Amino acid sequence: MKNNVSRRSVLGKITAAVAGVLAAPVAKAAKTVTEKVLVTTDAPKNYDHSKHRWAMAIDASRCIGCGFCAEACKKENHVPEGPYFRTWVERYIIAKPAPGSGAARGETLVDCPNGGMHGYPEPSVPKDEIQHSFFVPKLCNLCKHSPCTQVCPVGATFDAPDGAVLIDPKYCIGCGFCIQACPYGCRFLSPVTKTAEKCTLCYHRITRGLKPACVEVCPTQARIFGDLKNPVPDDPLQKFYQNNLVVSLKPHLGTEPRVLYAGIDKEVR
Amino acid sequence: MTNAVTNIVEVIMPHFEGYAYPNEATQQPLWSVLIVLYPYITGLVAGAFIMASLVRVFNVKALEPVYRLSLLTAFAFLLCAPLPLLFHLGHPERCYEVMMTPHLTSPMAIFGFVYAWYLMAVLLLELWFDYRRDFVVWSETTPGFQGLLYRLFTVGVMDESDEAAQLDHKYGHILSIVGIPSAFLLHGYVGFIFGSVKANPWWGNVLMPIIFIMSAMVSGIALCVFNYMVLTWIRRKKVDMRCLDVMGMYLFYALVLDAAIEALDWIHRIYSAEEGFQVMQYMAREKLFYTLSLGQVAGGTLIPLILLGLLQLIRRRVPELQRRRMYFASAVLILIGVLAMRWNVVIGGQLFSKSLRGIMGYKMEFAGLEGWLMGGVLLCLPFVILTVMVKLFLSERLPTDGHVPHRD
């Protein structure tokens, strides 16, 4: 059998392999440095995003619709006045079916005046005709396959390794494509900065060991927040996952939201 | 009390029927008239180029009078195509980022490249190869600033020999062949910007790029018919009826294809009746009645189909004047119809909430960035540029061997 392996080719291959092995950490370091230099976040300098995995869950059955969360969010994040919300609370009223209609349920009415910040008006359906009524807090769904990130033409919005979906405001060109692509209506174009804005899970707070503002003020713990990589003893998030059957919003779109809900109805979109 | 006071000074919110996510309750859709014009103008470019390619690639001799006019039309409109997009950005000064750091999974990221490719590598070069020998001749015969301009356009290549002309022709031919898929890419890609939005049942549709390409061809050919007839009228010349008949024929076939694909899209939507279909049905019946049923379907498709179809069947029995009128009316109706189609896609897709529970009303403002005035200006600008180009490159006083209208 003829041996085709020459000394030169073997040496070449070994050199390539060594170069490859050496290049990997260099490339990784370069990527980290580039990320730190180019990406603007509100995290402190010593924050290591690879050591966390933030998640939020909503127990809708606990929500009383006080709207403190929406108000706290507006104040904490300097969200502009008007129809701009990083989080809001929807009210669902499902009426009883009309007698003899043969329907299982009546009409569903949804409202959210001013994001739910200042309460809700009297329902248009008389109280004795209401079958179900409940509140649903909404925020960025932290999609695993986030369409907003996918469509951003310049990569200004990105999936942080710790689970948050963030926007670099110095980079955003304000084209609005991400706002169109978000199925949950969680983004808006700020009239102040002319860039896209969204819930960051209060990134400036969580990276300093605090809870997001909405979680902090929720009087009924309907919003449950935690770090999946560093569960604390008696972790509320883990308890929530254990005790509830959960759903996500618009699962047919394949976005795989990581904000999971318990206690909501099929009418919630 | 505070609440009551704030309510008085609060901005009057747009009227929604049903429920919309709070962030959707803005006064006008996020993508407004500027984004309606963007695919419209881009489509006209692609269509006009295909029209020119019929002469260059498919050797349709009858269309020679409109070859250069079509190319110049494509060029004038291409220069204006990115303007609406640029003006619409929250930070237009950062637009270069799309080309500096494109995010490759974004359907919008590649626009800069596709646009640059089409402008620099296809259209500009094809025009140059087509005009180069004329530039040399004109630079020698035209005095003053205009002559200097022609000299500048030659870029120093002053070879007037037949070999050089053959080489020009050969390269022009190759560029034209490359240009056809490029034109499809340019506009199919614009369709994909909308087709890729799965969050929106009105847009997220696999047929969207094809619908955009077909409607682009239709609108581009109609624009060439319109431009040719208007130019002829301005110059008080006689329309080349053979050329017009052939343009009408291509316009008819393109319209048949376009109508078939758009009908297929609707049949599929109606039959599958997926989530959100009820909202779409309501939109088509109520909110978009004028632009969809009247503008796009009746005025922009059915009437031109009948007019052009009739001309295919009984052309010889229709007197020339009537024929010209029928072609002109069809072209104008199609141009309005395709603009209505872009409106229906862009604005229609934003008139309902993504919660699929609410419908928004929209009244376009007059002044302002997203108003009638701005829309009108942006729509007229390519015609102004084209007029200058026609003066410079299609003047009757300039001798040429090229394919130009109104050669006696």
CATH class of chain B: Mainly Alpha
> How do the strands of the widest beta sheet of chain B line up side by side?
1-2
Overall body shape of chain A: elongated
Tell me, what is the CATH class of the largest domain in chain A? Alpha Beta
Helix content of chain A: 25-40%
Largest β sheet strand count, sense and barrel closure of chain B: 2 strands, antiparallel
Oligomer: heterodimer
Overall mean pLDDT score of chain B?
91
Task: Describe the structure in your own words.
The complex is a heterodimer of chains A (269) and B (408). By secondary structure, chain A is of the alpha+beta class. Chain A has two domains: 1-38; 42-83 and 137-269, Alpha-Beta Plaits. In chain A, 25% of the residues lie in helices and 17% in strands. Chain A contains seven helices and ten strands. Chain A has helices at residues 7-38, 68-76, 147-151, 177-181, 203-206, 213-217, 236-243, and strands spanning 54-59, 88-95, 108-111, 130-138, 157-159, 165-167, 188-189, 196-197, 223-227, 260-262. In chain A, the strands form four sheets. Chain A has a three-stranded mixed sheet with strand order 9-1-10, with helices on one face. A three-stranded antiparallel sheet of chain A has the order 3-2-4, with no helix packed on it. The longest helix of chain A is centred in the first third of the chain and has 32 residues, at 7-38. Chain A is elongated, with a radius of gyration of 24 Å. Chain A starts with 6 loop residues before the first helix and ends in a 7-residue tail after the last strand. Chain B is mostly helical. Chain B has a single domain, classed as Formate dehydrogenase/DMSO reductase domain (Formate dehydrogenase/DMSO reductase fold), CATH 1.20.1630. Helix content of chain B is 68%, strand content 2%. Chain B contains 14 helices and two strands. Chain B has a two-stranded antiparallel sheet with strand order 1-2. The longest helix of chain B is centred in the middle third of the chain and has 34 residues, at 162-195. At the A-B interface, strand 3, helix 3, helix 4 and strand 7 of A face loops of B.
